[in-house]
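dumping these here so i dont lose them again. two proteins, back to back, each one seq then structure tokens. dont judge the mess
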Amino acid sequence: MEKKIHALTLALESKFPLPILFLIPLLILFTLSRYRAKRYPPGPRGWPVIGNMGMMGQLTHVGLAHLAKRYGGIFHLRLGSLHMIVVSSPDTAREVLQAHDSIFSNRPATAAIRYLTYDRADMAFAHYGPFWRQMRKLCVMKLFSRKRAESWASVRDEVDVMVRAVAASSGSPVNVGELVFGLTRDVIYRAAFGSGSKEGPEEFIKILQEFSKLFGAFNVADFIPWLGWVDLQGLNGRLVRARDSLDRFIDIIIDEHMRKEKPDGPVDSDMVDELLAFYSDGDQGKVSECEELKSSIKLTKNNIKAIIMV
């Protein structure tokens, strides 16, 4: 029996090279996985590995409308290892957005978003659940309430500075775009960090711009995760440097706010002051379903930084 098996092995090796013998089991597994794969709505046939990524330039609202005419009101696209379902018909959209909204409420997070938001420690990309609901309550009641907006004297101060700058340039050309950009920069900075911070708004805007670029950058690893270690685009290094810059910048500001003595009378507090009222020195933000907001949510420094940046 052993001689027959040895003879068969020699015959196979003589007729088929070793790489082909290695690929045959992989082809069988691939075929079985395709056979057992979940059934998806109809859609354009994709290539192996990349799927329909070659069509990404066409996936605008116009391009998706053309595909809907061909494949129907609900169709399927595969972008690398990601499966995307496109809904175009009003009835199906109503089912997704109203009847089953809680199922589809989570936002997908790219590798850049997960890293720069300290693994979804913010509100924009947090998973739908108790933490997200309490974070939303915090933003509505504290950070972006009407009363809060009306109490920001810093905004009125910055507008007054811009008006005086325009008045001083009477009779001379004024670069309105530059003035509005400077006003927006200073308002955002003072609303977030206050006027007493020693750090500069120019550095903060540079960090903010790099975050914005990385959030929107195309990353092969988002679609083909097993290629993430290659980092052909150099994004991993940029992500590390961007978050390190944010940590150095905001940690100093948070520490300054924590050392600052609280005045007895009313004060024009900034966003960091409001968030530090819920600060807890722990590894993760914790939440419970209590009525009182301050007792129901505890924020870490990572939560505070992620909320400010996103």
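---- next one ----
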Amino acid sequence: MPSENSTPSTNSNPSSQPAQPLPNQPEPAFGFTAYAEQINGRFAMLGFVILLLLELFTSQDLFTWLGLR
């Protein structure tokens, strides 16, 4: 029968270390806040990539889609 040691092991198991606190998350708010600017920037980047993909797959530019050409 194996004997158990009473000394704690020096295992580097990440679950045995205390949890780190999460950084403060910005609260959603109305107006020109840092959170709103971050979300608007992300949506703008997403829209730009979608526009590039649309032009790539259809071989038509934005002006053609808008009926200006």
